[in-house]
Amino acid sequence: MDNICTMHKMHCCTTCRLKLWDTEEGISKITSDGDISRRNADEYDSGLYPMQRRACMKGYSELYHMYSPDRIHHPLKQTGSRGDRWGFCPISWDEAIDQYESYYESSLEKSRKLGYLPVLDIGGIGSFLGTTLRPFGASSCGNVDAAITAALGKRCRINASRPMDMMNSNYIILWSSNPCVTVFPIPYVIRKAREKGIPITVVDCRYTESAGAFATGKNKVPPLICPYPATDGALMAAMSYVIYKRNLHDNEFIKTNCFGFYPNDTVTSRSGETDPVTGEAYYGKTYRVPEGESFEEYLLGLEKEHNGYHGVLEWAARTTGVDAEVIENFAIEYAISSPAFIMSRFHGGAQRTYNGFYYSWMMIALCAMTGNLQKQGGGFGEMRGDDGYTIDLPPLPSEWDEKEKQPILVSQYGIDQVILTGTDGRSMGQLREDVLKMNGIDIGEGLCLDGIIKGAANGNPFNQLANINKRRLAWQKLDYVVTYERHMTATAVWSDLVLPVTFPLENGKKFDRNSAYDSDIHVLNGVLKPVGEGIPDPEVNRMIGRRFNLKQRCLDYGALMKMQWDKASLDPVYQKMHSALLPDFETVVKNGGASFPVTPEEVPVSLMEYAPGTFPTETGKINFYSPFLACRDRTSHKINHACYVPLPDGRESIQTSKGSGERGMRSPSGRYYPLQFITPHAPNRANSDYGNTHILKELHPHMLQIHPEDADARNIHENDLVYVYTDFGCIRIRAHITRSQLPGVIAIEQGTWYEAGDEQYKAYFDTGEGASYHLTPVDYGGCANTLLEDVKPGIFDPFIDCMGFHAGGSACEVSRTLPDWGD
Ligand SMILES: Nc1nc2c(c(=O)[nH]1)N[C@H]1C(S)=C(S)[C@@H](COP(=O)(O)OP(=O)(O)OC[C@H]3O[C@@H](n4cnc5c(=O)[nH]c(N)nc54)[C@H](O)[C@@H]3O)O[C@H]1N2
Ligand SMILES: Nc1nc2c(c(=O)[nH]1)N[C@H]1C(S)=C(S)[C@@H](COP(=O)(O)OP(=O)(O)OC[C@H]3O[C@@H](n4cnc5c(=O)[nH]c(N)nc54)[C@H](O)[C@@H]3O)O[C@H]1N2
Ligand code: SF4
Ligand SMILES: [Mo]
């Protein structure tokens, strides 16, 4: 018996090692790093590096996942109406490709009149045939991308602090980040930091696994600070104010490196960047902060509005639910503990809200005003790349001779709106101008969208984007939907044609970079036999490509992989420090990768590489105010400086609207919603993946998490089936009563599969002709996106591509009975 070493390719981007136990009967089990013999294991087990890539419950369950009962074995065609789970019929690959071809043909036919193919194509071959539509925006980190772009410059050029750098810090704040559940190597570094005696505070609106494992607190600052959802910006505003008033800010750093802190700040740019829309160079341009838009004026404005120092703290306490004294102490400890590290790897739930762009900008502002931003052990946590050195591996050549045409970019949060109204939420004028500039096509009075192809790409857009009931109405209007999938996800169910594809572990050998460990290289040893008629994604594209005579190159992937390794090289800086060598090809493949550990002393601080005035922003400085964004006028709230922006249907509205004796936020339908909900990522799923893996469903059942006070007030008991609802829809879910929730805040973990139930709920939302009532099925799958509104956070601009997601903080209600809203 031999182990096959491979990796877990999954949309958590951790890339753990999997060891497949190969027997004559097939793979008998899967283990991971950490299954080493116990003798002499202690040193290896408890050392900081090389970091072990130990799998979580999902990696260990991969065989259950791959061979789950709803694995798709054959191409499937919908014979009933779209969305009918039972209407699918198996067809042959030939029939499937005929059908697929006819869809592209119909779009090509229309393109003769429109100038583009009216198909949203993700991972199909459409962009080789002409101009298609493609979504932009990033649910994981679009809002932090927007803030980085505003404050620090071009997102692709900016690397913030690496998690390993926490070891160099005097104080670690885990802000809206639950790495014990979401990013596996990071808890290991945090554990080591804690062992070293570095104090840790967690800021999360519930008691999390990470708070339980790591939070120590610091002097008068408690281990866990629990703000109400989406109010973190107010907490940061008050902290900034306290730091400023107590003169704990780093004035020299601000004056030399930042723009927009002080009124009338003026700078002549030394930036090497160009305007992404006009292509004009920024260098030599002079920028000035308009009156009232500097950070100092913002802080003094808070003071004026809330009547002085204590008033500001009281306002923040009222808004966030955190004691004024705690806020003050937290601000002081953060400012005096330099270097202090805000670990916020994906900027978590607080970033994934309608005001998350401003929250993220406030975080950068806090780091900048204290000088933490450019310090070893300071700053804020990077989203990927744990140690900062990479192995340079030549890319594989394209299989296609043809060049892709630049697609028309539409916000992924406005796809349904495009179907229903012709625009993704931009004004028709803006959309027309953007498409003309980027694609050279005049779309006239709006975009046409007839079909969706979810091809060779990760994704379950029907399930994972907000406002599913609106999507039901929109997708019913489409001519066709094609999905390449392994399981009958919600998106597959809403398709006309489902094409069975294989899993990475069935897809042969290749190198992979998808990783939370920068300096490591991974090998995907995909040795398992495909199931049924499933084929790899690229093979589907080859089949459909042949129908359109697209020229393809025949590539020998085995030889190419060897070529890649022959040309691979270690980062020269790393190599100099370690005189390390890459292993030979056979060894790297057999071991499923190679690891190049980085010590805390060696971890690079990329932001320190920018001398004053050379950041890739328009001003060349760290922006508290962005002249580019002001000129472009595309920010979600039309505010172009760092500040706190409340959610329209968040905490403040719940506090203030108590009309006619009823508590809660008065929604557009006139209903009152008194609770806030959040939708964290679940330990037993990677987004919607594993939503059908029974062993994991049993291990961690999908339950509404609610505080005993809120449960009592609604006569809800443990395990009761309850309804959660907003104006946008209603889900049915079992209740788990827990003190880990704040009173007034419930949690519904994201990623369960939407399932239209038998009961009906009267929702109220806008499909383009003003808000109106819609009878919608209660979602028995308990998918959080049935409850969420499809708002557009961040910067609504395809030239910048920094749009984020709104996944929580909004108001809702829970009850044991389905609400009857009458006629
Ligand atoms: N197990 C698992 N791992 C995953 C994933 C998964 O689905 N499952 N998904 C992967 C992906 S794609 C991503 S983007 C990352 C996401 O990783 P994270 O962003 O870390 O995950 P979240 O659970 O969304 O948010 C983290 C924490 O934010 C808290 N929170 C929510 N709203 C607020 C708020 O307003 N204020 C504060 N202070 N806290 C708040 C939540 O309680 C939660 O504990 O995880 C990756 N890893
Ligand atoms: N309410 C709420 N919604 C959220 C979030 C939240 O916090 N709350 N988080 C958001 C975040 S951060 C993210 S990243 C998104 C993720 O949302 P998406 O990216 O839309 O969805 P996933 O659930 O990751 O998609 C998984 C599906 O893609 C398939 N798949 C994976 N790889 C491939 C491939 O190579 N080829 C093919 N053909 N199929 C593949 C899998 O089989 C699986 O069925 O969800 C967002 N949605
Ligand atoms: S799901 Fe992510 S964390 Fe879990 S084993 Fe796979 S790669 Fe690792
Ligand atoms: Mo994500």
From TrEMBL:
Keywords annotated in UniProt: Iron, Iron-sulfur, Metal-binding
Chain ranges of the 4Fe-4S Mo/W bis-MGD-type domain: 1-70
N-terminal signal peptide: none
The keyword Iron-sulfur is assigned to this record: yes
Keyword Iron-sulfur: yes
Pfam families (alphabetical): Molybdopterin, Molydop_binding
InterPro entries, per the entry: Asp_de-COase-like_dom_sf, MoPterin_dinucl-bd_dom, Mopterin_OxRdtase, Mopterin_OxRdtase_4Fe-4S_dom, Prok_Mopterin_Oxidored
PANTHER family in the cross-refs: DIMETHYL SULFOXIDE REDUCTASE DMSA, TRIMETHYLAMINE-N-OXIDE REDUCTASE
The family this protein is said to belong to: Belongs to the prokaryotic molybdopterin-containing oxidoreductase family.
Listed name of the protein: Molybdopterin-dependent oxidoreductase
